[in-house]
Specification:
The complex is a heterodimer. By secondary structure, chain A is α/β, with parallel strands linked by helices. Chain A folds into three domains: about 120 residues, no CATH class; about 35 residues; about 140 residues, no CATH class. Helix content of chain A is about 35%, strand content about 15%. In chain A, helix 4 links the parallel strand 3 and strand 4. In chain A, helix 3 packs across helix 4. The model of chain A has no long low-confidence stretch (mean pLDDT about 90). By secondary structure, chain B is α/β, with parallel strands linked by helices. Chain B has a single domain, classed as Rossmann fold (3-Layer(aba) Sandwich), CATH 3.40.50. Chain B has four helices and four strands; from the N terminus they run βαβαβαβα. The two termini of chain B are about 20 Å apart. The chains are: A alpha/beta, B alpha/beta. Chains A and B meet through helix 8, helix 10, helix 12 and helix 13 of A and helix 2 and helix 3 of B.
Chain lengths: ~325, ~140
């Protein structure tokens, strides 16, 4: 896969279709792949990496890149393509300034899970059939890929690239029975006290690094409410429980109806807080109350929170549903 | 939930300027009684209510927050309360999901002619929140006296 993508990237640069290529390069370690912009075929030869750790959603970077002069090529996985469409819907990405290469994806991996499987000191990764082959300082080790998949890939909602100029590999299908709401349902079935204890145990770990906000394609406001120094909620260290609750409720609320469930927030969280569960709760509620809606699945449908009908459920519906008291 | 003796909850009522605020006025004119611990904040329309306002009210010591607006279909700005209805439904559902007592938040539609409904709603809501006791789950100790 990496060879095909690299070849395509060089081709696009050489024939002048694009001036820049948005891709991944290795960070400090081989598994922390960072989004990067490449301008020459030589750079691509040297630094471009695509592996099972290329989880980063490229669509957010297109906001800044398409503002610049010239065209930029981006490699978009199925889940990234939903964010790409959603951002175009919000007029954040200039589509004429980018060239989208869709890539078929069979799941991205989480280094934490590789370590949990007992593989230490890894230095490189490759794929063989449905196995991950890791070169480590103790020799070559293998593990099944499905054991190392990111949470969002285990419950992959779609393998379909929604918007692209050309495809590498076969375009897949949506998968409505991915079971992504199972965990939300499990939480809903708990008593409020249990839920409160669960969320306290999760959110109290938050260090307010703002990684979830910075990586989120939906969180791309020019001026973020949490950056306002007068708000009293802009500090790095949360000084009280309230702030942690407030930050995560409001952040989830601000992306409600625009969140495509790409799962980036949970992937980048250094404290492993399951932030996708907050977003999925909103998605689930909107699906149940206002009809099925997938953000970024098309260019036309109005998001439920910007829409209404005259016979919507009253807010008191919350007293009747969701958990036992 | 432990109920403190002589506990009087602080209630913040966000009232839309065109209906519920006038409704509150009417209930005053009619000499209807509702508890004095209901603090009314006037907003131009129920859809002006930012979800953050509700959380802020809890942070600064409210024990319950109620939003009153025009009846759906009667909004002064035609559609404001339809949006508010969706927003509040989602927000309350999220608060419940985080284990925060859902009885602390409420939405009621009160028109300018419904002074009696306003007083009755407030009496009921204060009673419900008094039974729940102090707001512990969304408090901010820095804001406590």
């Amino acid at each position: 896969m990496q060879a095909v993508i690299k070849k395509k990237a060089k081709e696009l640069l050489e024939c002048g279709t694009v001036d820049r290529v948005l891709g991944w390069k290795a960070g400090e370690f081989f598994y922390d792949l960072t989004p990067a912009v490449f301008t020459t075929p030589e750079e691509i030869d040297k630094d471009f990496v695509f592996s099972v750790f290329s989880g980063a959603n490229m669509s957010k970077y297109l906001i800044e890149e398409t503002k610049k002069e010239g065209k930029v090529a981006a490699f978009i996985k199925p889940c990234d393509s939903y964010s790409l469409v959603q951002l175009q819907k919000e007029h954040r990405i200039k589509r004429e300034n980018c060239y989208i290469v869709g890539i078929a994806c069979d799941g991205m991996c989480d280094m934490g899970l590789v370590r949990e499987a007992g593989i230490k000191g890894a230095t490189a990764v490759s794929e063989k059939d449905d196995k991950l082959v890791l070169e480590t300082i103790y020799g070559e080790k293998e593990m099944p890929k499905e054991k190392a998949l990111l949470e969002r890939c285990v419950h992959c909602k779609s393998k379909k690239v929604v918007d692209f100029d050309e495809m590498i590999g076969e375009n897949g299908e949506e998968n409505p029975d991915c079971g992504r709401f199972d965990e939300v349902e499990r939480l809903e079935a708990m008593t409020p006290d249990e839920r409160f204890a669960f969320w306290r145990s999760q959110l109290s770990r938050c260090i307010r690094c703002n990684a979830c906000r910075n990586v989120c394609p939906a969180c791309s406001c020019e001026k973020c409410v949490f950056d306002n120094p007068d708000s009293g909620i802009a500090q790095k260290a949360a000084a009280s429980d309230f702030e942690e609750n407030n930050f995560h409720i409001i952040r989830a609320y601000h992306v409600a109806g625009r969140c495509t469930d790409c799962g980036e927030c949970s992937r980048v969280c250094p404290q492993n807080i399951p932030l996708h569960l907050l977003n999925r709760k909103f998605i689930k509620d909107m699906n149940e109350l206002y009809g099925f809606y997938q953000a970024g699945a098309d260019f036309e449908t109005k998001p439920p929170i910007m829409n209404y009908t005259t016979n919507d459920a009253e807010p008191s519906v919350v007293y009747q549903r969701g958990g036992s008291k | 939930m432990q109920v403190k003796e002589n506990f009087t909850p602080t209630i913040v009522a966000f009232c839309c300027n065109w209906c519920s605020y006038a409704g509150a006025d009417l209930s005053g004119n009619n000499r209807l009684e509702y508890p004095a611990n209901v603090k009314i904040i006037r907003i131009p329309c129920s859809c002006r209510l930012n979800p953050m306002f509700i959380l802020r009210a809890f942070q600064r010591g409210a024990d319950g927050v109620i939003l009153c607006g025009c009846h759906p279909g009667d909004c002064h700005y035609t559609t404001g309360n339809y949006y508010a209805r969706r927003r509040m439904t989602l927000l309350f559902s999220m608060l419940d999901y985080l284990g925060i007592e859902k009885e602390r938040t409420r939405v009621e539609w009160v028109s300018a002619a419904e002074g009696a409904k306003f007083a009755q709603t407030m009496n009921e809501f204060v009673e419900a929140v008094t039974a729940l006791g102090e707001n512990k789950r969304l408090e901010d100790l820095r804001c406590k006296q």
